[in-house]
Specification:
The chain is an alpha/beta fold and 269 residues long. It has 2 domains: 60 residues, no CATH class; 197 residues, 2-Layer Sandwich (Endonuclease, Chain A). It is built from 11 helices and 6 strands.
């Protein structure tokens, strides 16, 4: 917005009665942004659209809350982007998760987590944790599904995930039993995307659409790749991910059919 207005950082700093360094830090995301500063900068840049200004105010509020959020993760060595993600997850009221590669983290058993960690390439941040602390953190994270006001979790899992388990048959049986149990909970919806349903853009990688209770609050989408992550915060792109999730769900097995498949696969291991 500053660039579009043809202004420099020193000029923006003058509007805030602040230093150029402060503007540089705000623009780089190194420090939180106060509401008065957002209003002053929008005024300086000639941006008066209530939707744009309100969206920035909302985003800044979410960012401030995310920075100060405390929870179960303070007792574990959760690092980097995952620490940011679990703080949002903890504040969410509902999440839609598409997963073409692994069982979603909120639904993993301890044995599955342990086997996956021991058989996969992990990031530097993940390697800072001992195996058991990593498993304990993952299990603690799942408490949001069982709180007095539990997270509403809808997920679609690609069939390949259910046929390719780390840790062998024992891990597979335990994980499939766990999925069948969770599918009975009213706040959890599990669909399977079968092989014969064809292909779609979602097969490029997993994503989670995170929603919040506040009226009009923007959805935040977390898109994950092996060594990179991406946040999509509100707007048309977030809406496109939400639409893609619904399209994937429409082409998937229904909840009852999905549970039937889980039971059938359980007998095969």
């Amino acid at each position: 917005m500053r660039t579009a207005a043809g202004l420099t950082q020193p000029q923006a700093a003058k509007a805030l009665s602040a230093s150029t360094a402060k503007v540089a830090k705000l623009e780089a995301g190194w420090v939180p942004v106060r509401a008065p500063d957002i209003r002053a900068l929008c005024e300086t840049y000639g941006v008066h659209d209530p939707g744009v200004v309100g969206g920035l105010l909302e985003l800044a509020k979410a960012d401030r809350e995310r920075r100060k959020a405390k929870g179960w993760w303070d007792g574990h060595r959760v690092h980097g982007v995952m620490r940011e993600y679990v703080a949002l997850e903890n504040a969410a009221t509902s999440i839609k998760a598409w997963q073409p590669a692994f069982i979603p983290g909120l639904l993993q058993t301890a044995d599955y987590v342990r086997a996956l960690r021991n058989t996969s390439i992990t990031s530097v941040a993940m390697r800072r944790q001992s195996d058991e602390d990593f498993v304990a953190a993952r299990v603690a994270r799942q408490q949001c599904l069982h709180n007095d006001t539990p997270l509403v979790f809808r997920t679609v899992i690609y069939e390949a995930v259910l046929r390719n388990f780390p840790g062998g048959p024992g891990t597979a049986r335990g994980q499939l039993d766990h999925l069948c149990h969770l599918a009975d909970l009213p706040n959890i919806s599990i669909h399977v995307f079968p092989f014969d349903a064809g292909t779609h853009f979602g097969l490029n990688g997993p994503f989670n659409v995170i929603s919040f209770a506040e009226p009009g609050a923007m959805d935040v989408v977390y898109v994950e790749a092996p060594f990179a992550q991406r946040w999509v915060e509100g707007g048309g792109e977030a809406a496109a991910y939400d639409e893609l999730f619904e399209l994937i769900t429409e082409r998937s097995l229904g909840e009852r059919e999905s549970v039937t498949l889980l039971h059938r696969l359980r007998k095969e291991f």
